[in-house]
Amino acid sequence: MKTTVLFFCFCIIASSEVFGEENLPEIKIIYEDPAATAARPFRKEDCSLGVEQKIGLTSCRADIPVYRWSNTENKCVNDFYSGCHATKNNFQHKEDCVKIATPICSS
Known about the structure:
The protein is an alpha+beta fold. The protein contains 3 helices and 2 strands.
C-alpha cells in the first residue's frame, strides 16, 4: 500500500515537472450528487450504468448482492455493490429492477 501511494505521489510530482503548473492537463471527474441521484426518476441513460459510480480511490469493500439492468442481456441481472456511490441502476430486489428498469430500458 505504501509503495502504491509513493508511486502515485511520484507520478503527480513528475507530471508537474513535465507539464509545469500552468500546462497541467485538466482532469474532470463527472459524477452525480447522491442526493440528486436519489431524488430523480430512473431514466433511459441509467440503463447503461453500472451499480456504482467509480470515484477515485474508494475504501468501500462490501460485496452486497444487488440487481441492475444489463443492456447486453436486455434484462435484470445479478451484480455486487461495494457500498458507496450507488447509481439509479442499483436495485436491492429483482422485482424492483424488473418493474422500474424493464419498461424504460427494453424499449
